[in-house]
Amino acid sequence: MAAATLPSMNIATRTSDTPAYLPQIRLYQNWLREARGLSFDSYNDLWRWSVTELDAFWQSIWDYFDFQSPTPHSAVLAHNVMPGASWFPGAQTNYAHQVLRHVQPAHEAGFLAVISHNEKGLRREMGWPELRRQVAALALHLQAQGVQPGDRVAAYLPNIPEAMVAFLATVSIGGVWSICAPDMGTHAVLDRFKQIEPKVLIAVDGVSYGGRDFDRMAVLQELKDALPTVQHVIVHENLGTLDLANCDVAASVQMATITARDDAQVQAFEPLWLPFDHPLWIVYSSGTTGLPKPIVHGHGGTVIVALANKILHNDVGCSYHPNSWGERFHWYSSTGWVMWNAQVAGLLNGVTCVIYDGNPGGSKDKPDWGILWRMAAQEQVTFFGAGAAYFANCQKAGVDIARCGDLSRVRALGTTGSPLSPETQTWGVAQFKAIGTDIWWCNISGGTDFAGAFVGGHRELPQEPGVMQCRMLGAAVEAWNEAGEPVKGEVGELVCTQPIPSMPLFFWGDKDNARYLASYFEMYPAGHGRKPGGGDGPASMGGVWRHGDWLRIGNAQGEGEGCVIFGRSDATINRHGLRMGTSELYSAVEALPEVMDAMVVDLEYLGKESYMPLFVVLRPGMVLDDALKAKLNNAIKVALSPRFIPNEIFQVDEIPRTLSGKKQELPIKKLMLGQPLEKVVNKDAMANPGCLDWYVALAQQHLAKV
């Protein structure tokens, strides 16, 4: 945090259990007024300044958070072009350096770095000095194995502290990190790791999920055999059954042996200073066809955007700062989702991270959606985040948080991954009101693509269920109509007209940026809408970022600045000339007590008559009879329009979802249009691939009739 917001005092003497919790964005605005002489009448005025005066805004973020570099930068945004923007040239940084600067003050104040739980009831603590020691020990080991800046280190690890240690150790020496979750299929992992040719593989012996243990040593051998560039394998004993002496994985060493080291070299270790745009990690898009896109983000851009987003918008303060004393941050995620990266980013701000490894809904035989709530109560979590689907499942399961322990410390709930329905948000508000808390929902929407958020929360703006409060500072987000014109009160394409420091540096192995350009920048002519503050710029400025979401800014009358995401713009419904995303239909259908889950696809294609089937998962014991079909149709008719009544309704066992919980609308749409299954979906990237056989059979029946 900046010196302006960390007054000189003995922070370890603070004893109050009730922090002041002045909103972080207010503290920033106070600093802008005092240090820069800048005052704004409204948040919208502040936002507009942040996306128009790019140099001034991002320099203010640099200064406010006391961003450190041993060398000065010659400019803030040296080259405003998308893609290819040049940020802070000359500056040096390291993600791990930003984390480890908190070791001494956080430890002296008595705070932990990480608290971890798993579904077997194992609870572990890791202090800040221990985090630093393990990171240093593993970093020195990796260097001894020949890992140089730019070399890739691949991880096959679950959401455990060792994954955080491995990540920080890798990037501290300039290695490029990439992680896949052990619940991903072998082919899905290889589709990712083969593209980046890692030198080192760090893996786990097995995982526990849903009440079952899964040995992963055979998979690890497959990975090793299929990755010829891997020269060294490190294995973490997670299940307690690891026997390296008798395993077939060659050149393996146990992680605990490495991280046990504590000598003068370990104590003296410091992360390397790297160029601002040095590659940090490689994450992967959840594409439905072709190989996943290996997206490369840089150290500096990732860190500076994470600090701005997490602190100013998510209102997650530093654990040892008097204003946010005792902050504890939890965001449930697997390591296969970018929200794991967001959870780790809490360490950038000196926050105690509370993590969970396992199924948040219990086992199939013993479902239990209170697990995370009880953990949050036990650990006095202050910010509780998860995917929108998690909260919807809690609502459907009838979770009563009052019976989950003392949750009075929770002051914020965060969601992303898919749109949060107004009904679920209202349910959450009522749950916390019953225990005496006026809860704040911090609903965000962004993407793996740029490791950030476009729209999100603001601690002091009004809340409306189902509506994200604002566009994020520094994110020049607009909704564009079909003519490429900004609109308010209408649903349009979500675009970002100015660069953000965390946008991808490039895609790994992407010759001439062909895949990168095709993914985000081909829809609109170069220069269109690129002038800061509005208007067209020269073609040399490049295109605008088209994200692939439907967005409405303001309400239906064009009033206000709240944002609603209506789903993916390539998986939308266009019925009889009226276009919409799918989220509104889901809100109507899933509000019915009989419905657990739903998915809709619109098969309008090349002028063919629209055919729109609706798939519903019903509560146990319920049957889709004529009466329930009528009820579903009426709910859609009332909430939306008779235009959106489906052609047919099918009862299904499961809705196909990705590993991050997103409904697979587009693959099923393509399947129903006659494309082969293997070309529309990667089963290994799905949470429930077994359900696809039913949809394949339906597609065949449908195609036989048309």
Helix content: 25-40%
- Label the overall shape: globular
Under CATH at level 1, the class of the domain at 592-705 stands as Alpha Beta
Largest sheet properties:
7 strands, mixed
* Category from helices, strands and their pairing: alpha/beta
**At the fourth CATH level, what is the homologous superfamily of the domain at 592-705?**
ANL, C-terminal domain
| Strand order, largest beta sheet | 5-4-17-16-18-19-20
Q: How large, in whole angstroms, is the Cα Rg?
A: 25 Å
CATH topology of the domain at 592-705: GMP Synthetase, Chain A, domain 3
Number of helices: 22
Brief overview, please?
By secondary structure, the chain is α/β, with parallel strands linked by helices. It contains 22 helices and 33 strands.
